[in-house]
Amino acid sequence: MLEVSQEEFESLVADGLDSLHDEMLSKLDNVIFLIEDRPADNSPTLGVYEGFSLAERDIYGYGEEPDRIILFRENLLEHCADMEELIAEIRITLIHEIAHFYGISEERIHELGWG
């Protein structure tokens, strides 16, 4: 497994977000990005979106808790062979989870080559 400190990993995620097109980020509303070591179910997933996608926002009310995009640090480190692959996989995972925020299905994400 790659050895990357928590601080360095957070910096890589911030860099990944900075590398995305402004249009992709412009409609993110009430969304927070988190890093956790592993999912509660210990699955190998690299990231997850939790919340109401834009397609579901008609049921979204005032004062809602923020939607969450979570990247799983240890899973990403285990999944990648080197730093170059880790940087690319963080970006892909961010795009994948942001796509879910926009209501894009898992099937469509794969058709577009985003996951």
Strands, helices and their partners?
Layout: H1 6-18, H2 22-26, E1 31-36, E2 47-50, E3 67-72, H3 73-79, H4 83-101, H5 106-111
Helix pairs in contact: 1-4
Question: How would you concisely characterize the structure shown here?
Answer:
The protein has 115 residues and is of the alpha+beta class. 43% of the residues lie in helices and 14% in strands. Strands 1-3-2 form a three-stranded mixed beta sheet.
Quickly give the structural class: alpha+beta
Sum up the overall morphology in one term: globular
- Ranges where pLDDT stays below 50 over 5 or more residues in a row are none
Beta fraction: 5-15%
Number of separate strands: 3
The main sheet comes to: 3 strands, mixed
- End-to-end Cα distance: 22 Å
Radius of gyration: 14 Å
Query: Mean pLDDT, rounded to whole units?
Result: 91
Give, in order, the helices and strands.
HHEEEHHH
Query: Can you list the strand order of the major beta sheet?
Result: 1-3-2
InterPro entries: Zincin_1 (IPR010428), Zincin_1_sf (IPR038555)
Protein name: Metallopeptidase family protein
Pfam families: Zincin_1
Organism: Leucobacter coleopterorum
Keywords:
alpha+beta; three-stranded mixed sheet; 5 helices; 43% helix; 115 residues; 3 strands
How would you explain this protein's 3D organization?
This protein is an alpha+beta fold. It is 43% helix and 14% strand. The protein is built from 5 helices and 3 strands, in the order H-H-E-E-E-H-H-H. It has helices at 6-18, 22-26, 73-79, 83-101, 106-111; strands at 31-36, 47-50, 67-72. A 3-stranded mixed sheet has the order 1-3-2. The protein is globular. The chain starts with 5 loop residues before the first helix and ends with a helix.
